[in-house]
């Protein structure tokens, strides 16, 4: 590929380890509303979607008022637990991989996440990551995954074409978004969804650690 390449990262389950926080906060919200608590597999399946859509999928029979209450309780509990633990931790190897990519002139980095911008900014500040990314795409002003809106806007922001872009994520929603946008799709196996789900959703390759990820990025973006 000629010119700069764009590497787009998901956050939750890809760069930051939030599985326990998310599952715990959703479970707490349903308990507080005296509703049937979804099992962990169901909660993990919604990762990558906007929180509004995730809540609707987990409580399909709830009315709008109860959905809003669930959403508020979930967000408050998640933030409270994040404050107690100080931050949502980066996966081991994530910082090194970002440093390596950021140090190369032929790569640009971006984020495309189901996390609201408030949460993204919290992560950027906690880990001093803002300098790495050319744009932060969230559901606040984009259509939620798997619609390609976030990828399209990230590409437009830096003038990079589809053939020069790869999406990295841990869920089928990330892979489907990449397929819908017509860009490369790299799955990671340390997040919310299983390898088979990633492959079925269109992953070109699934990696097991950040060293493999760096090699996969090079392979998929080589001239």
UniProtKB/TrEMBL annotation:
GO terms for cellular component: cytosol. Pfam families: HAD_2. Signal peptide: none annotated. GO terms for molecular function: phosphoglycolate phosphatase activity. GO terms for biological process: DNA repair. SUPFAM superfamilies: HAD-like (SSF56784). PANTHER family: HYDROLASE-RELATED, PHOSPHOGLYCOLATE PHOSPHATASE. This is Similar to phosphoglycolate phosphatase, clustered with ribosomal large subunit pseudouridine synthase C. It comes from hydrothermal vent metagenome.
